[in-house]
Amino acid sequence: MSAPNSGTPPTESTTALAALSTEQLIGSGQEGGLLDQVRAWVQRVRGGDMGALPAVAGFIVLSILFTILSPYFFTERNFANLLTQAATLVMLGMALVFVLLLGEIDLSAGVTAGLTMVIFVVLIAVVNLNWILALAIAFLTGIAIGTFIGFFVAKVGIPSFVVTLGLFLGFQGLELIIIGAGGLYRVETPEILAIQNSTLPTWGGWVMVAVMLAISATMSFIDRARRTRAEVPNRTIALVWAKLIAIAVLGGGVVLILNQNRGTGFKAIEGVPIVVPITLAILWIGTFVLDRTKFGRYIYAVGGNAEAARRSGVKVAMIRWCAFIVCSSLAVVSGLFSISKVGSVDAAAGREIVLSGVAAAVVGGVSLFGGRGRLIHAAIGALVIAVITNGLGLLNLPAGVNYAVTGGVLILAATIDAVSRKRAGGSILRT
Amino acid sequence: MDMPIIELKGVVKSFGPVDVLKGVNFTAYPGKITALVGDNGAGKSTLIKGLAGVQPYDGGQVLFDGSPVTLHSPRDAGDLGIEVVYQDLALCDNLDIVQNMFLGREELSAGTFDEGRMEREAAETLRQLSVRTVKSVRQKVSSLSGGQRQTVAIARSVLKKAKVVILDEPTAALGVAQTAQVLALVKRLAEQGVSVILISHNLVDVFEVADYISVLYLGQMVASVKASETNNEDVIGYITGAKTYEGTPA
Ligand SMILES: Nc1ncnc2c1ncn2[C@@H]1O[C@H](COP(=O)(O)OP(=O)(O)OP(=O)(O)O)[C@@H](O)[C@H]1O
Ligand SMILES: [Mg+2]
C-alpha cells in the first residue's frame, strides 16, 4: 500500500506503477495501454467468452444482406419501423434475462404481458376505469404473477419450466374467458398509443444522446476515482474515451436518421420514437442493478453455483423469487409496447412471442445454462430477430420462412452458447 | 494449555434413520492445526457442515471461546469468524476471483459495489499468503486450475480475519507441487493465529502439518491425540477400528 510519497500528486500512471511494484505477484488485468486491453479482450473471446459478438456480427451481415436485396430496407421509414417493431421483443428479452441468468425460464412471460394488457384494456373499456389506475392494476397483476411463479419455483421447488408452462396454458384460457373467442378491444388511451406512435421533438433526440454521454462519463469517472482511492490500477483512460465516442457516433447516427422526415403525406413524421428513451432507461437501470448491487451479483452467483452462493450466506430462494417478480413486471412493460404498436388486444395476446423472447436473449449471448449474459445482449439479440422478421417481410417471402429462419438462428445461437461454455471450462460440473 | 476456541460436546446428527454423528466431542485450539481423519463416510464432512451452519446439528453443545453458541445458518458461523473451505469447492465459476472472495460480504459505497476496495483487499490477502500462481485477480474462476481454485477458496476464508478455518480435503485433487503449496498455506494460516481444522485422507500430509489428530470412526470420536505423541501405524489402526485409543483425549 505504498502511495507515491513524493511531492507530486499521484497521476494516473504513477499510481498504476506503484500498485504494480508492490503487487508484482498478482495483476488485476487492468494494466497496460489500449493495445494490451484489446489483446486481453481477444484472448477472452478466443477462450469462449464471446458475449454479444456473434449477434453484432449477425446484425451487420443481415443488414447488409437485406439492403442489397430490398430497396426499402435501408430507409428512414423502415429504420424507425424496425425499432418500434423490435421494442416489444427487446423488453421481453430483457425481462427474461433475469430468470435465464439463474438457469431458469419463464415460458409464461408472453402471456403474462398479454393477460395484463387484456385486464388493462377491459378495465378501461368495460369498467370505465381511469387509465392510470388500470395501468397500476396491470402492473400489480404482473407482480402477483411473478410472486406466484417465484413461490412455486423457489419455495416449493417445482422446475420453472413446468410452473410457467402451466401458466402459459392457463393464462391463454383466462384471456379467452375475459375477452371471448374472436373478441378484440381497441386501445384508445392516447398516452399508451404515444409510446410507439409519437416521437421526441428533434432536439429531444440530441438531448437523449447528451444525457447518455453524461451518465456514461460520470459513472466511468466515479469508478476510476474509487479505484484510485483504493490504490488499484485503472484501465487506460483511452478506453473511456473510446466508449464515449462509440456512444456519440452510434447514438448520434441513430438520432440523425430518425430526425429525418419519414412521413409520406403532408404531415412530417420525424424524431426518435418515445419507446426508445423508455427502453434505454430501463436497460440502464437494469444493468446498473445487475452489475453494481448485491441483488444483481447474487443473481449471477446463484446462476453460477447455487450451493456456493448459499454457503456464502446468499438467500438463494429470495433471489430466485425476486428475479421472477422482476421478469413478470418487465413483461408487463413489453405488453404495453406491444399494444401501443398494434393498437388492439385480442384473446391470443402474447401467445407467440415468448419463444422469440428466449431466442432474443440466447442469440444475443445470454447462456441458457445460467450465470452468463447481460441485458444489452438480449436487446441486441432482439434486434437481430427483428431484422430477420422485417427483412423477410420486405422480400414478400411466405411467413413460414420467417419461422424457419428464426428457429435456425436460435439453434445456431444455442450451439454457440454450448460450445463456448465448454471452452470456458464450464462443463466441469460442480454442485 | 491454551483454551480451546472450539469445543463440541456430544453433538449428534442423523439423516432419517441413519445416525451419522453419535455424540461427538471435538476441540480445536487457536494457532494450531487439528487434523480430522477417518474413513469414507465416517462423518467428517457432516461434522464440519454443522460447524459451518450449513447442516445444523440435531443435538449436543457447541462452545466458541468457552461460551455456548447456536449455528443455524452460514451467517451465524461467519459472524463468529468460522470459515469453511468445502470438499466440493464452493466457488462460482462464472465470477472472477475478487467477486468470489467477497461473495455474500461485498464492500459497498453509496449502496453500490466499491470494486476498487474489494480488489485491493483481495490482492492484499493473496499476497499475504504469498500466492504467486494466479495471474490476475480479475480472472474468472472457470479459467483456474484445481490448485488455484483451492487457493482462492482458502484466501476467501481468511479474507475477513477468520478465527477458525476449516478445510475439507483441500489437497485431494491436487498434484505434488500444488499440494505442497496448499500445505504451506495452511501452516501460514496457523502461524497467523488462526485455528485450522484440516480434514485429509493423506496421513503423510497430516503428520507434516498437524499439531493434533482427531479420529472419527463410524460417527464416533475414537481418538484425539497430539501428532507428536502418536505415529502413522496407530492412527491407521484408529481409522480402521483395528486399534483402540487408551489415553485421555488431548
Ligand atoms: N444429506 C445427507 N443425507 C443422507 N445421508 C447423508 C447426507 N450427508 C451425508 N450422509 C451420510 O452420512 C455419512 C457420513 O457422510 P460424510 O460426508 O460426513 O462422510 P465423510 O467422513 O466426510 O466421508 P468422505 O471421506 O468420503 O468425504 C455417510 O454414510 C453419508 O452417506
Ligand atoms: Mg467428506
UniProtKB/TrEMBL annotation, chain A:
Keywords annotated in UniProt: Cell inner membrane, Cell membrane, Membrane, Sugar transport, Transmembrane, Transmembrane helix, Transport
InterPro entries: ABC_transp_permease (IPR001851)
Compartment(s) where it occurs, according to its Swiss-Prot or TrEMBL record: Cell membrane
Main subcellular location: membrane
UniProt cross-references to Pfam families, sorted A to Z: BPD_transp_2
Record's bilayer topology term: Multi-pass membrane protein
An annotated GO cellular component: plasma membrane
GO molecular function terms noted in the UniProt entry: transmembrane transporter activity
TM region(s), chain numbering: 52-73, 79-102, 109-127, 133-154, 161-185, 237-259, 271-290, 318-337, 349-369, 376-395, 401-420
Role noted for this protein: Part of the binding-protein-dependent transport system for D-xylose. Probably responsible for the translocation of the substrate across the membrane.
Name the record gives this protein: Xylose transport system permease protein XylH
Natural source organism: Agromyces terreus
Organism phylogeny: Bacteria, Bacillati, Actinomycetota, Actinomycetes, Micrococcales
Automatic annotation (TrEMBL), chain B:
CDD domains linked: ABC_Carb_Monos_I (cd03216)
SUPFAM superfamilies referenced in this protein's UniProt entry, alphabetically: P-loop containing nucleoside triphosphate hydrolases
Keywords of the record: ATP-binding, Nucleotide-binding
Nucleotide-binding in keyword set: yes
PROSITE patterns per UniProt: ABC_TRANSPORTER_2
Superkingdom: Bacteria
A molecular function (GO) term: ATP binding
Entries under InterPro entries matching the protein: AAA+_ATPase, ABC_carbohydrate_import_ATPase, ABC_transporter-like_ATP-bd, P-loop_NTPase
Ranges for domain ABC transporter: 6-243
Pfam families, A to Z: ABC_tran
Protein's UniProt keywords contain Transferase: no
PANTHER family assigned to the protein according to its UniProt record, in alphabetical order: CARBOHYDRATE TRANSPORT ATP-BINDING PROTEIN MG119-RELATED (PTHR43790), SUGAR ABC TRANSPORTER ATP-BINDING PROTEIN (PTHR43790:SF8)
UniProt-recorded name of the protein: D-xylose transport system ATP-binding protein
